[in-house]
Structures are given as structure tokens and as C-alpha cells.
């Protein structure tokens, strides 16, 4: 099988959000969409042997759900369906993604989230502690976006902590694959202590922005535009809320520097951003060769 985008599906609004967003990504990148339903592991105790009739019912139900999911995917997007058994939904997604050498795993927000905002559920939280491929979080309401809508801009929030270079490389590669603009948000002015003089903050912010833009431009092919803006605010949440966001935009953040190599763990900065972001978020895992950051 060729590499694709794995999307975890449940017969809920969150599942529809995930499939719609994953379809848009797959269409823009030219990837295959792998839609998967994960069922409870059928390895039970010998004391309570499995009920064959119930197992057949669950399998049939899963196949029906997958048919519902594929109906939401545009005809131009290649898709495959999978029924997997695992001890947890997240485990099933990670295992399949590893087998397929998938580029991303896409999941929806938890029930009860505000429209256009993120709310981490059990599956997303577990993925952010276990996945070794980037996880894409679809905010509530993503299902209402036309699945043929393109991805117009990739925004990466770049700070000064270890891992910024790796995040910049990932965001640049994603912008190229999507044919989207690249916007880099410098967080250096928010990172500085509140006691620092405002003049120093302005100078540091401008210097960091110039450095980030120079590195990004060096890795971009012709036809892909990049810009850098300096986030300003009294907090991460305040800075993010004052940024402009396009309907076809996605945000990219890195996993915490405390995460295990090639694993995800949402750092404090990314977690704060999550509550304010009105667009999908891509969380990038650390690599073995480079320390990860929380941007």
C-alpha cells in the first residue's frame, strides 16, 4: 500500500469533521485517504469466549459506517477503508499509520466543543501521547466546510526554544505539498519575561522575525510565498486571538521538548493556542535527530 492520510471515523459529528478535513488535505496533497473504524480487540478471556453472532454484527456495523464515511469524500479523492481491532481507538490508528507509512492521522474534536474550536477528547489525548506521525485535529464544525475547499495558508508558530528549526522544516514542506502560502508567527516577544523593556522586545521580535523568514525563504521553491509576523499580546492566548485567520488555513505546532523521541506530547504553549485557534491544528512529533520544542 502507498502512503496516505489515516482518518479515524466514528458515526458522530466529530467523525464527519475528521473525514471532511482529511478529504481536503488528501485532495490538496494528492494522497490516498485511509478511513478506519477501530473495534474493541476480540482477544478475550477463555472464561468468556467471544460471541460469534455479536462479532459479526459489530463487523457489519463497522462496514456500514465506512460506507457512510466514503459518501462524504469527493469522487476525485482516492480512498481505502479499514476495520481494525485494538485495545483502544488511538492504538488502532497509530498501528495502521505505521503499517501504511502514513503522513498524518486526522481526528475530530470531542463532543461539546464550541463551533470552530478544539476540545480534546480521549482519542486525541491518547494520540498526542503515543503517535509517531503528525496528528491533525479537526475543530468542531469542520464537516460544514465544502470538502473541495483548498488549503490556502499554512501558519507555523515559531519560538526560540529547541525544535524551532524542525518545526520550520515541517511547515515549509507542508506548504509546498499543499501549494499553499506560508505564514510564520514569531512568538519571541511573548516568550520574553514581562520585566523586559518594551524597546528590547521590539528589537528582539524584529530580529527573530528576520531570521525566521530568511531560513524559510531558503527552503521554498519558486511560486510559494512566505511571510512572517510578530505575535504581540499579554499572553499566548491573547496573541493568537489577535491574529487574522483565513477559512482555508491550518496551523502547525511542535510537540513538547519533554516528549520522547518520535512521539507527541502537547506542550504548554501549544495547549494554550489550541483553545483560541479557529482552524485545524497539526501537531508535529519530535525526531531522533533533533530535539523537539513546544511550538
Which key features would you list for this structure?
single chain; 295 residues; alpha/beta; Rossmann fold; 10-stranded mixed sheet; UspA; Universal stress protein
Describe this structure in words.
37% of the residues lie in helices and 20% in strands. It is an alpha/beta fold and 295 residues long. It folds into two domains: 1-149, HUPs (Rossmann fold, 3-Layer(aba) Sandwich), CATH 3.40.50.620; 151-294, Rossmann fold.
Give the helices and strands, then pairings.
Elements: E1 4-8, H1 13-29, E2 32-40, H2 52-70, E3 79-86, H3 89-100, E4 104-108, H4 122-127, E5 135-138, E6 153-158, H5 164-178, E7 181-186, H6 188-191, H7 198-218, E8 226-230, H8 236-241, E9 249-254, H9 268-276, E10 281-284
Parallel strand pairs: 1-2, 1-4, 2-3, 4-5, 6-7, 6-9, 7-8, 9-10
Antiparallel strand pairs: 5-10
Write a concise synopsis of the structure shown.
The protein is of the alpha/beta class and 295 residues long. The chain has helices at 13-29, 52-70, 89-100, 122-127, 164-178, 188-191, 198-218, 236-241, 268-276; strands spanning 4-8, 32-40, 79-86, 104-108, 135-138, 153-158, 181-186, 226-230, 249-254, 281-284.
Strand order of the largest sheet: 3-2-1-4-5-10-9-6-7-8
> How many DSSP helices?
9
Helix content: 25-40%
> Which residues form runs of ≥5 with pLDDT under 50?
192-205, 258-263, 288-295
CATH class of the largest domain reads Alpha Beta
CATH superfamily of the largest domain, by name, is HUPs
Binned strand content:
15-25%
The coarse overall form would be elongated
Distance between the termini: 32 Å
If you compute it from the alpha carbons, what radius of gyration comes out, rounded to the nearest whole angstrom?
A: 20 Å
CATH architecture of the largest domain: 3-Layer(aba) Sandwich
Amino acid at each position: 500500500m502507498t502512503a496516505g492520510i489515516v482518518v479515524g471515523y466514528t458515526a458522530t459529528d466529530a467523525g464527519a469533521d475528521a473525514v471532511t478535513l482529511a478529504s481536503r488535505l488528501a485532495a490538496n496533497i494528492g494522497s490516498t485517504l485511509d478511513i478506519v473504524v477501530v473495534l474493541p480487540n476480540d482477544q478475550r478471556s477463555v472464561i468468556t469466549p467471544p460471541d460469534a453472532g455479536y462479532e459479526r454484527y459489530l463487523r457489519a456495523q463497522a462496514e456500514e459506517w465506512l460506507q457512510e464515511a466514503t459518501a462524504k469524500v469527493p469522487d476525485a479523492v482516492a480512498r481505502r477503508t479499514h476495520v481494525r481491532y485494538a485495545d483502544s481507538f488511538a492504538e488502532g490508528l497509530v498501528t495502521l499509520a505505521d503499517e501504511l507509512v502514513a503522513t498524518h492521522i486526522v481526528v475530530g474534536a470531542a463532543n461539546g466543543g464550541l463551533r470552530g474550536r478544539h476540545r480534546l477528547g480521549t482519542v486525541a489525548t491518547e494520540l498526542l501521547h503515543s503517535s509517531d506521525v503528525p496528528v491533525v485535529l479537526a475543530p468542531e464544525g469542520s464537516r460544514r466546510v465544502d470538502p473541495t475547499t483548498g488549503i490556502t495558508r499554512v501558519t507555523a508558530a515559531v519560538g526560540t526554544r529547541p525544535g524551532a528549526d524542525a518545526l520550520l522544516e515541517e511547515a515549509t514542506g507542508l506548504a509546498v505539498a499543499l501549494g499553499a502560502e506560508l505564514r510564520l508567527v514569531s512568538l519571541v516577544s511573548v516568550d520574553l519575561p514581562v520585566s523586559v523593556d518594551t524597546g528590547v522586545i521590539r528589537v528582539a521580535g524584529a530580529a527573530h522575525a528576520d531570521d525566521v523568514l530568511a531560513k524559510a525563504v531558503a527552503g521554498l521553491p519558486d511560486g510559494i510565498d512566505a511571510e512572517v509576523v510578530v505575535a504581540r499580546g499579554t499572553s499566548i492566548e491573547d496573541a493568537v486571538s489577535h491574529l487574522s485567520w483565513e477559512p482555508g488555513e491550518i496551523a502547525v505546532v511542535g510537540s513538547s521538548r519533554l516528549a520522547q523521541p518520535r512521539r507527541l506530547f502537547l506542550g504548554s504553549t501549544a495547549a494554550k493556542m489550541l483553545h483560541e485557534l479557529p482552524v485545524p491544528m497539526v501537531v508535529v512529533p519530535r525526531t531522533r535527530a533533533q530535539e523537539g520544542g513546544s511550538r
